[in-house]
Design a protein that fits this description.
Elements: H1 20-26, H2 30-38, H3 40-49, H4 62-71, E1 78-83, H5 92-99, H6 101-115, E2 119-124, H7 129-144, E3 160-165, H8 175-182, E4 206-210, H9 211-223, H10 225-229, E5 239-246, E6 252-257, H11 262-269, E7 281-284, E8 291-293, H12 303-308, E9 317-321, H13 327-341, H14 347-364, H15 370-386, H16 390-394, H17 397-411
Parallel strand pairs: 1-2, 1-4, 2-3, 5-9
Antiparallel strand pairs: 5-6, 7-8, 7-9
Amino acid sequence: MNKTRRLISEYFDKYTVTEIDKYIDLGGFSGLKKALKEGPDFVIDSIQKAELRGRGGAAFPCFKKWTSAKNRPEPVKYVLVNADEGEPGTFKDRDLLAKDPYRIIEGLIIAGYTTGAKEGYIYIREEYDDIRRQMNEAIALAKSRNFLGNNILGTDFSFSIKAYTGAGAYVCGENTALIESMHGNVGRPRVKTPRVGERGLFDKPTMVNNVETYACVAAIMNHGWEAYANQGLNGHKGTKMISLCGNIMRPGVYEVPFGITVKEIIEEIGGGTRDLSLGKFIQSGGASCALIPYTHFDTPYTYDDFKKKGFDIGSGSIVVANGNVRVVDYLSSVSGFFEHESCGKCTPCREGTKRMHEIIDDLCLNRASDQQVNRLFEIADSMMDSSLCGLGQTAPTATLSAFKHFKEEIMESVTK
């Protein structure tokens, strides 16, 4: 049995950005045509029945966000693609943008039509400059075929898209920091409320979704929600794009059915670890998520099953660590990332990430004391309770999960 799927990724490597007609021949923009024919309520009903959740990490039900955006009474509102993919180990959005740019554009146009927005933006991380140029070319070609611009496909719906490049800050993946960046300010999170759905880009209501979310919507509208839902296993609906990397034989981007187990992903899709062992642990969902020890590799890859055990699907990354990886060394890499990427706006995150990294580095050198370990937990509590945004609130997650599952190994690094 083939463990992967090809629904969201069905057009990968089948056309280039200059071949918009080939995308159309494959079935592209048929989802948009169906949306324009059936109406906004049909779109929202379809994504609700598909049980589509946001693919950026929060996993919020899409139909609720789209319904809220549709019901905003303001005459001017925006829809936005968050393509600021900065989570370590995550690169599935890059493949979606590079290998199927028109599907993202199609999903964004559907979002604009459904919510009543006239303008859409694609916020692309600075490191993806080649993708930004490609996306601008795709936007121009889509406009030349009347999929963008005035009176799209003979209807009274008009919509435009612009690509925007950030400055390369991980924190801009947070919606309010992303908006601040687009306003020309330093990319730092702002105090909520109001949320971006109420006052976002240019102080207008703004709906922000991840790249993969828009790709899913286009596929659901193209094939129908039943076809999407039936891709899952054991009663679970749909698929997820994952970025598989680390100590794995076959790293890459894969589309997997919800309901597959972690073990099947590692062994049957990834080909096993480089030392041919089952693996020691994985980190699923990005650097801000928990470590999953090998004793839980039989867990089905679903939002609910992961949540029950304190794990996260998150952004879709799966970083595999084999038996040669010391937990404290891995934690040093994670904590160093957060120290570097903290925007510095709030004290708990600015100082907490630095102190955590220092203590973990002492553990790596076998010179940390029991007092330092206790301080590590105190700092983590302060960060989770007091940080302004999700970066500081979730930065300690990997460390705390490591102590839960690998405490004995970690404590061997404490000075006696």
